[in-house]
Each structure stands twice: as structure tokens, then as C-alpha cells.
Design brief:
Distance between the termini: 42 Å
Strand content: 5-15%
Number of domains: 3
Bound molecules: guanosine-5'-triphosphate, magnesium ion
Structural class: alpha/beta
CATH topology of the largest domain: Rossmann fold
CATH architecture of the largest domain: 3-Layer(aba) Sandwich
Length: about 450
């Protein structure tokens, strides 16, 4: 996958790994290599400059946490910035196996729709789905035969009608056919790729979508077009709220990096990528894993984790300090929420800090609901000004309105957060008083923040 980009990035990184000390010269050399590598992969110039600037800034100027080398920190920065370039989000396709899901594939001529359908059928069949395919391409002679041939080895049934020239009819009949054969819970629809540009393609897509009522529409984009993929992804992303993207031909394409970054910048979801002509050549797109394999750093995850933990340690120290002084601000509160969300177990962090379990509830809360609440609370904190984070008392009336708007939450939720925070402050005061009296940490304080986490 992206062989030439991968090779040049790996070579550049080797220099950092092999250097006796990581100084300004090494980093500048690396940045030069990085720029060349990304530009040769057809990544947009502006994006390249943005990435290299960030790497330069952070690698040279950031304060590195204790116990972490500048080298490891630099590698983490590179990794983070490339991940940001190639798409932050990993959005797996979640289908309800108890319903019939319909995925409709569209894309311009030769982009890889028909091939991708076979790959996706294979992918979901392996995960226990019963898949049916509809040959909705009535335009190109031989399209149905190609679809059948590709799906035959995996025993996925293909519905088609060579005599029917109206694709809408074939799709309608195909859906009925599979719906009556009750055991199918995933239907994939192939469409014609007679379009050479996105405008007419999107128009036809809307017409077919009316009939097929798809769960999701998947735009298939040929990655060999490099950064030109942006126009397609952008138009599609704007008009199709239920859309996602498959990038094909990432194997051996010199411009693949340009295509991935161009799609990522539009905010469109890349679900899968194709990296070969065979039916198995489909991968779920996960930016972190993608960058990891691009850089060929099998040990990168361990490295990132230890750098992150060093940061956590610093955060923890700050919290401990706040506790000692009895001065808890929303800023500390936010650090705590972030740690809880990062570690997916509040218990892990809580166990490090005396008295903190009283704030988060005694039980580590792992449920998805709790995590969602934490994310919302973090969003609320992120919409606060520096002043507000340092002094929660100023947050009233109009400010609550503004914060809830900015964070996409309700004023009630903002108030809930403030309530929980105030309770935590009260408890902290009480704890300090008791500790002062008895000289020992108190036990059995009612958990104040239990309600926060779901
Ligand atoms: N190397 C490589 N080739 C691919 C990949 N995906 C598709 N192809 C090839 O691209 C060509 C076009 O693929 P199709 O699946 O027929 O494309 P399509 O969008 O259905 O084409 P039309 O129906 O004509 O619009 C075929 O030769 C495929 O083998 C991929 O991930 N890697
Ligand atoms: Mg086709």
C-alpha cells in the first residue's frame, strides 16, 4: 500500500531513529524529506506545509515530559501530524443484523464499484452476514456477468436481469426478491458508471436512492487521481448525509497519499480502502493503523502510549497539587474527564489520586453511556474561556447559553456539569477539614459525581 510514500517516510524516520542526538539540524533535514515524500505522493502543497510547520514547531519547541526523550517525542509528533493529515476519525460501518441493510455503490466510470462490491460482500459474509447483490448496472454490456463471476467463489447470490434496461426496475425487483428470501440481511447494489464527472453522477444517485432507500451510499473513488479526489469527495459529502467513501487502487498508486489526504480534508468518512484486485484486498480504514503501517513502525503504539502516559503523569501531578492546596478548578476537572475518556476506565486514573474516587464514584464506569457523557462534558469545557475554566463562579446566564451552543449541548447539561463541579469542590473542602482533624484521609464520603457518568 502506498509503496513509494511508505518507503520514503520510513527512510526519513530511520534518520531520526539512528541519530545520536535529535537536534535542530536533524529535525530540519527530516522536514525536508517529509515535504518531498508528501509532495511526490501528490499531497496538496498547503496541507504539506501545514504538517511540516506543525512538526517543526512541536518537535523543536514543545516541552517534553520528564522521562521522555526528544527523539521519542518527535516520532510521536510526526505520527500525530500524519494521522491528522490522513483523517482523524475512524468510523466503522455498524449495521443492524436484525434488519435488512442496503448499501448502494456509486462512482464514476472504472472507479472500482463492481470490484468493491465483491470485496464488501466477502467482508460482511465473513462477519456472519447473509449477503445478496443486485446488478443495477444495466448500461455496460457484461456488467452483470462480471459481478456474478466475481461473487461466485464466495457463493454470494447476484440478482440481475439482462433483458431489463431500466436500472430502477432491476433494483426494485432485486430488493423485493431478497426481501422475500428472508434470510438475507445485507443487500449491495451495483450501479452504472457511465459518468465521467461528479455532477451528473450525483443527480442519478439521488434518483436511484429514492427507490432503493439505502442505509448508506458508498462513493467509490479511484485513488490514482491523487488530490483531484477532493472535488468528488467534497460534492458528495455536501449532498449526501448518509454517505461514506471507499478509496480503491491504493496498491502501487504513487498518488494515493494525495487522495487520502484530499478526502480526509473534506470531512467525508473513508470506510474502506482497496489495495489489490483480489476479493480479499479490502481494509477497514483506520487512520491510526494506516499511518502505523505506512511508517512501518510496529512498535509505534507502545511508544505513543508511553509518551501519553508521561503526559498523564504530569496531569496527575497537577491534580494532586490542586488537591493538596484545596483549589480545584474546572481546568482540573477537565483534565480528569479527559484522562477518564482516554483510558476508557475511570478507575485506572482514580486509583492514582487520593480522594479522587470519591469524585467519580467508587466503581470504574465503563459503559458506553458513561463515556458519551464524559465526551459531552469535555465538549462543554472546551467551549469555555480561560477565565471561566479558572473561575467557575463567573459562569451564569448568557455565558451558559453561549457555552451550550458552542458545545452542541443543552443549558441543562452545562448546569449539570457546574453542579457536579461545585459538589466536588464542596467535598474536597470537607475532606480537607476531616483530614486536618484526624490526620488521615477520609473514607466513606458519598460519591459526588456518580450521576455524571450515566
Ligand atoms: N490494483 C487494483 N485494481 C483495482 C482495485 N479496485 C478495482 N480495481 C481494478 O479497476 C478496474 C475497474 O474496476 P471495476 O470494479 O470494474 O470498476 P467499476 O467502477 O465497476 O467500473 P464501471 O462499471 O465500468 O464504471 C478493474 O480492472 C479492477 O480490477 C484495487 O483496489 N486495486
Ligand atoms: Mg462496474
Amino acid at each position: 500500500m502506498l509503496d513509494s510514500l511508505s518507503l520514503s517516510l520510513r527512510n526519513a524516520i530511520m534518520k531520526i531513529r539512528g541519530a545520536a542526538i535529535v537536534d535542530e539540524k536533524i529535525i530540519n533535514d527530516f522536514i525536508q524529506d517529509l515535504e518531498n515524500a508528501l509532495l511526490s505522493a501528490d499531497v496538496n502543497l498547503e496541507l504539506v506545509l501545514n504538517v511540516t510547520e506543525q512538526v517543526r514547531e512541536k518537535a523543536l519547541k514543545d516541552q517534553v515530559p520528564m522521562g521522555v526523550s526528544r527523539r521519542d517525542y518527535t516520532l510521536k509528533v510526526i505520527y500525530d501530524e500524519l494521522t491528522r493529515l490522513l483523517g482523524k476519525r475512524h468510523v466503522p460501518l455498524r449495521l443492524n443484523p436484525n434488519e435488512i441493510s442496503v448499501l448502494m455503490f456509486i462512482g464514476i466510470q472504472g472507479s472500482g464499484k463492481t470490484t468493491s462490491i465483491g470485496k464488501v460482500a466477502n467482508y460482511f459474509q465473513k462477519r456472519g452476514y447473509k449477503v445478496g447483490v443486485i446488478g443495477g448496472d444495466t448500461f455496460r454490456p457484461g456488467a452483470l456477468a462480471q459481478l456474478q463471476q466475481y461473487n461466485a467463489p464466495i457463493n454470494v447470490e447476484v440478482y440481475g436481469d439482462e433483458k431489463e434496461k431500466k436500472s430502477s426496475k432491476v433494483i426494485k425487483n432485486g430488493l423485493n426478491y431478497f426481501k422475500e428470501k428472508k434470510n438475507v440481511n445485507l443487500v449491495l447494489i451495483d450501479t452504472a458508471g457511465r459518468h465521467k464527472e461528479e455532477k451528473s453522477l450525483l443527480k442519478e444517485m439521488q434518483e436511484i436512492a429514492k427507490i432503493a432507500k439505502p442505509t448508506e451510499i458508498i462513493l467509490v473513488v479511484d485513488a490514482t487521481i491523487g488530490q483531484q479526489a477532493r472535488a468528488q469527495a467534497d460534492a458528495f459529502n455536501r449532498t449526501t448525509p448518509i454517505g461514506s467513501i471507499i478509496l480503491t487502487k491504493l496498491d502501487g498508486s504513487a498518488k494515493g497519499g494525495g487522495a487520502v489526504s484530499a478526502v480526509a480534508i473534506t470531512g467525508a468518512k473513508i470506510r474502506f480502502y482497496g489495495d489489490g484486485e483480489k476479493i480479499q484486498d479490502l481494509e477497514e480504514f483506520n487512520p491510526t493503523r494506516f499511518v502505523g503501517s505506512l511508517l512501518g513502525m510496529g512498535d509505534i503504539e507502545g511508544l505513543i502510549q508511553s509518551v501519553n502516559e508521561a503526559f498523564d503523569e504530569e496531569d496527575t501531578a497537577e491534580l494532586r497539587d490542586a488537591f493538596k492546596k484545596g483549589k480545584l478548578t474546572l481546568r482540573h476537572f477537565k483534565i480528569q474527564l479527559e484522562s477518564a475518556s482516554k483510558q476508557s476506565s475511570i478507575g485506572k486514573l482514580v486509583s492514582k489520586i487520593p480522594g479522587m474516587s470519591a469524585l467519580t464514584g467508587k466503581q470504574p464506569i465503563l459503559e458506553a453511556e458513561g463515556q458519551k457523557n464524559i465526551k459531552r462534558f469535555i465538549a462543554i469545557c472546551n467551549s469555555m474561556t480561560e477565565e471561566e475554566l479558572d473561575n467557575a463562579r463567573v459562569i451564569k446566564g448568557r455565558r451558559i447559553q453561549r457555552i451550550s451552543k458552542g458545545s452542541g449541548t443543552s443549558p441543562q447539561e452545562v448546569k449539570l456539569l457546574l453542579n457536579q463541579f461545585n459538589q466536588a469542590v464542596k467535598q474536597l473542602k470537607m475532606m480537607r477539614k476531616m483530614r486536618g482533624r484526624r490526620g488521615a484521609p477520609p473514607g466513606g464520603i458519598p460519591p459526588g459525581l456518580e450521576g455524571m457518568f450515566g
